[in-house]
Structure prediction request, 936 residues.
Amino acid sequence: MTAVPAWSSSSGAVKPIRAIIAASILLLIVLAALFAPWIAPQNPYDMNAVSIMDGRLPPGSVGDAGFTFWLGSDDQGRDMLSAILYGLRVSLFVGFAVTLGAAVIGSIMGLTAAMAGGVVDSIIMRFVELQLSFPAMLIALMLVATVGSGLDKIILAIIAVQWAFYARTIRSAAQVEVRKDYIEAARCLSLSRWRIMAVHLLPNCLSVLLVIANILMANAIVIEATMSFLGLGLPISRPSLGRLIANGFDYLLNGAYWISLFPGIVLVVVIYCINIIGDDLRRFLNPRGL
Amino acid sequence: MILGRLAQGVALVLFVSFLAYVIVYHMGNPADVLASPNATAEDMARVVHDFGLDQPFLTQYFTFLKRVFSGDFGMSFIVGEPAMSVIAARFPATLELAISAVFIATIVGVPLGVLAGAYPEAPLSRLAINLSILGISVPLFWMGLLLIMIFAVWLGVVPAGGRGAVGTFLGIRSSLFTLDGLHHIILPASTLAISQTVLFFRLANAGTREALSSDYIKFARTKGVGERRILARHVLPNILIPLVTVGGLELGSVLVFAAVTETIFAWPGMGKLMIDSIGLLDRPVITAYLMLTVFIVIVVNLAVDLLNLWLDPRLRTRAR
Amino acid sequence: MDAPLLEISALTVAYPIGGRDVPVIDEVELTVRRGEIVGVVGESGSGKTITAYSIVRLLEAPGRITGGSIRFDGVDLAMLPEEAMRDIRGRRIAMVLQDPTATLNPVLTVGAQMAEAITCHAAADARTVRERCVEALRRVGIANPEERLQAYPHELSGGMRQRVAIATAMLNGPNLLIADEPTTALDVTIQAQILHEVQRLLEESGASALWISHDLSVVSSIADVLAVMYAGRVVEEGPCDQVIAAPAHPYTRGLLDAFPEANAHGAPLRQIPGSVGSPAARPSGCSFRPRCRRATAACEGVPERREIRPGQFVRCFHPLAPGEVA
Prediction:
């Protein structure tokens, strides 16, 4: 019991303004990525539309065929603006797919561990801890090294890394809930385990799930970008923002900085917005925590 | 508790070694993998025999284990030298980078976090908190690129890459001991340190805020203890516990992210070697790196546990 | 007559809620004489803890004192600079908090935390400090005090931790001990022991005490003077036996009646209907009005503090006569 009345405002007061702004920006970006094939001025992966004569043009210049490169062009003559829009599609798709997959798998494992307890719990948690004691990037790199690169393999690799975070967090949250009386009541009613898990346990762990899903989605995008940058990620035919940045790396220090800079800025904006939303979400749901 | 950790460590080593074994020996055609890509049919047959690839599964595994524990990972395809020695040669450079990064993260992140937690309304605190979100939003490689652009190209105060001259101190050779070396390491180490700094900052911030609202701080105040002593004697020892635990566990990430940093700054460490090896499918080196990393992770986890025992008296009773 | 040790007059503490300052305690009057134990009784939310923290100026922001004075030995504490206040804390006014588990820092030894109480005020050599700590532990009835000094808080039981807290508070021989629900978190048997020991300590040292509790039976066994708080105001104050024998305020009467022992066997338990409510939503006038059976239109005004019987003060428009049932 503290001397402070619960209603007094502290510096942790949540002003959702910045989260709303961030969410709006993010929404715009997502929409732009979704509609990229329609709104992009050029399809940068259509070999016929791209001419190497238009290579490395600075932003705003006009190419041979009268096409304006608003954000400049890369070394192959691809329009940066279009490349960024298409790259966004890939990056965001990876983020969503990974988060969905890892969250589903992780939640099932975590809920099962919490509900079953005993040996099942121990086994699952051994795996989780084993995985978590390894740096995430390393596992992803290793997996990609062995099974090769490609969109589906990258997604699977990052899912394989992230599920453990979900599992551990959901398990902790579920363990608290499982002891509560309403679960006991559900058991007394002989509801099936799956039903208890899905209908009763899960909704109460949802707030925690949202918070970490947010963080981990940003994390997934970063991992994918990093792997692409290192040349181990997606191929150039379907580049993500990370790959675009890697492409332009050599030109960064001498001349055509725009090939790397603009995809980089977009990437940072996306990740920053996701993190802001996550931060405010967390402070809203758990004022005292980290 | 230490025994438990050791047992876990051994389990981890065995598990990873088994994984590595499966990956190297049983994915694809192992002979292809173990022999150099230019081998003739005769060489292949010899490889099969030398490596005992015609032996049963478990026998091969035990042979593999034996070789691993004697440090023999085979020859690197690219360099033609024992994989382990190739890695070992580049280990000190990575270690320098990692240690410098953690050092920077600690002296920047922790005090800032404590102050931000103690005076949350101060403008510097608010700035630091918002910057911290930005800090984790910028991918490491991009931050490195940006910093190179600003400090090396535009301002020209530090070199754009490479490791500096190496000096000797107390029998240890490191570029940290020369001025040129420090000049070269400051940018890559700072880049690598950013995510760690943010982490330490947030932990110290949250820990300080939680500690300051606790009853024992109130009680200390009723005794008449001054603010500075409260921060130093009461708050700091309490926040060191989560800091060490999480920070120690993150050390593994630092080592891995060092690989990215090394790539950008042309730092001759084993991380860069690893990336190259993955790209070139130099599997002996990959295996060696993997086992080395496992070992380091285990050692670090053990060190964290020991440190925690020292910092948190509550654990000592349970350990008895 | 001796000047009182502590004299709180018209103390008002407010918290900003929704843009305006909402008074959480309002015009509180409290007096503690030398060598006297004043018990403060009230339910959660009555403002007793806030009053206590206001005295030592450890109110948590954004609460602040918006009116009144706190005269300690003639000096108004509300006006003192922080450095002077820090000197008084722990040396002349000491506090014991409610939860013994949380009161002591888990990573420091008992000895270190006790020594700190001495050294933060005046330098002293290690041996003297140790001896004083050992002596203080012995006086609160802790066996093997030398060993206990090396122990960590989690190695001690709740009762022992509270004893350590009390010993720490008494180390510098304070004139006033403020105890905020110190026995609430302990077993009943330990409670009785600690009450007894504290009473003895206070008698020996001649110190005064402000004993805060929601438990009337605990307070009445130790206090000389009783003060009853409700919704941020002191509604009744007077010599303990007198107030209990002849309560003047309906709320006090209700508290006494609520004891299971006070009820006839088999009869329904008497209770005070309703609840306190938050400070932002307090009714105007007498704050007990919604729950009082004697309320009339007159109670829409704020009752003044009146001396209804010698030494007994009450804030009520319709105080009870001795023996009257509410």
Q: What stands out?
A: Chain C has eleven helices and twelve strands. The domain at 6-92+177-183+207-315 of chain C is CATH 3.40.50.300 (Rossmann fold). The mean pLDDT of chain C is 85.
